[in-house]
């Protein structure tokens, strides 16, 4: 007797299983949930995914995500343009913004230097950062890469490029544990790290 397989269901579950942190069972639970939605709700969900993919892009200045020509942070005239916070990912921007302690601008590298994974300095947005520093507006660059070996290596590499420009380079201080990720830090810990940042 032929095995009863629901090919469209398996395809749907496989797509969810590809998401970070979603395993085999969770993917199937999500797929069953989607199938239980009224048709209109399922269409809203799929429409929201398509709309997000079509309208959200990288800010041409800081490379954060935005649905505008420039992101809201870069467009805000009240932000302190003399300080740029360098982060690995756009997710880090939202975490730092949530603590409401930093009023400067951002620069998203889109990763960290990791030769073992084939990620070299040229694969990151380091050149774009250096271009932003040349007009003399920026007085401080805060290196807010994660406290991992790759994050520290990236911060050190960029710091050496910036120092000849006479710009102060700081690093987030104690508060974020070694091996920890900014994305998972609570607001108090992150605020302490910002307030105690050190020169590199």
Sum this structure up briefly.
The chain has 200 residues and is an alpha/beta fold. Helix content is 42%, strand content 14%. The model has no long low-confidence stretch (mean pLDDT 91).
What does this structure look like?
The chain has two domains: 7-55, RecR Domain 1 (Helicase, Ruva Protein, domain 3, Orthogonal Bundle), CATH 1.10.8.420; 65-199, Dna Topoisomerase Vi A Subunit, Chain: A, domain 2. The protein is built from eight helices and seven strands; from the N terminus they run αααββαβαβαβαβαβ. It has helices at residues 7-17, 24-36, 39-55, 72-75, 90-98, 126-132, 149-162, 187-195; strands at residues 57-58, 65-66, 80-87, 104-108, 140-143, 168-171, 198-199. The strands form two sheets. Strands 4-3-5-6-7 form a five-stranded mixed beta sheet. The protein has a two-stranded antiparallel ribbon with strand order 1-2. Helix 5 links the parallel strand 3 (80-87) and strand 4. Helix 1 crosses helix 2. The chain is elongated. It starts with 6 loop residues before the first helix and ends with a strand. The model has no long low-confidence stretch (mean pLDDT 91).
């Amino acid at each position: 007797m032929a095995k009863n397989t629901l090919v469209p269901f398996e395809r749907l579950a496989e797509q969810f299983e590809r998401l970070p942190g979603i395993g085999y069972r969770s993917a199937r639970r999500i797929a069953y949930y989607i199938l239980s939605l009224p048709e209109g709700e399922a269409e809203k969900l799929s429409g929201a995914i398509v709309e997000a993919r079509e309208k959200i892009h990288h800010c041409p200045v800081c490379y954060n995500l935005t649905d505008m020509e420039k992101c809201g942070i870069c467009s805000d005239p009240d932000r302190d343009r003399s300080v740029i916070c360098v982060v690995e990912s756009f997710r880090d921007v939202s975490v730092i913004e949530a603590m409401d302690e930093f009023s400067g601008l951002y620069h998203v590298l889109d990763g960290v230097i990791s030769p073992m994974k084939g990620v070299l300095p040229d694969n990151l947005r380091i050149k774009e950062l250096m271009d932003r520093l040349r007009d003399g507006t920026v007085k401080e660059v805060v290196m807010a890469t994660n406290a991992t070996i790759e994050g520290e290596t990236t911060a050190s590499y960029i710091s050496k490029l910036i120092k000849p420009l006479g710009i102060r380079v700081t690093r987030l201080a104690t508060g974020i544990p070694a091996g920890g990720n900014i994305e998972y830090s609570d607001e108090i810990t992150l605020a302490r790290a910002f307030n105690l940042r050190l020169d590199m």
